[in-house]
Design goal:
Helix content: over 70%
Distance between the termini: 6 Å
Number of domains: 1
Number of strands: 0
Strand content: under 5%
Number of helices: 5
Mean pLDDT: 94
Low-confidence stretches: none
Shape: elongated
Largest sheet: none
Structural class: mainly alpha
Length: about 130
């Protein structure tokens, strides 16, 4: 029961983070990006477009969390996506340099929550409660 609660806690924390950030980017566009400076209309359009995927990702996690017993198989790809998104931020650091501290923190949170979710899912799979 403890593993299930911890796993659900990670999932709902992901939902809260993803939906808040996704909604903020969708509504405010590129102006919501910390340290963005000036940006073109094309960049704003792309930010709002990509924000819909953050929102959809959050809604998918909600769908899984509401019926963990039957939908837990979706956790692995969802958490792997989160880890890869953090690794993409690391690639950006290597390719173009260090972003605003907000994004460094985001990278760490994405990788840690993703790995934690993967580990808890592995434990849950072997002993669903």
């Amino acid at each position: 029961m403890l593993i299930k609660r911890l796993l659900l806690g990670v999932l709902w924390l992901c939902v809260a983070i993803v939906l808040v950030i996704g909604a903020q980017l969708l509504l405010a566009g590129a102006s919501a990006i910390a340290g963005a400076g000036t940006f073109s209309n094309s960049i704003d359009s792309e930010v709002r477009f990509l924000a819909t995927f953050w929102v959809a990702y959050g809604l998918m996690i909600i769908w899984v969390a509401l019926n963990l017993r039957d939908r837990h198989a979706f956790i692995r790809p969802l958490m792997l996506t989160l880890v890869v998104s953090g690794l993409a931020r690391a690639l950006s650091i290597v390719m173009v340099g260090t972003p605003d501290q907000f994004y460094i923190t985001g990278m760490i949170v994405e990788i840690v929550l993703g790995l934690l979710g993967l580990g808890l899912h592995q434990l849950y799979r072997h002993n669903p409660q």
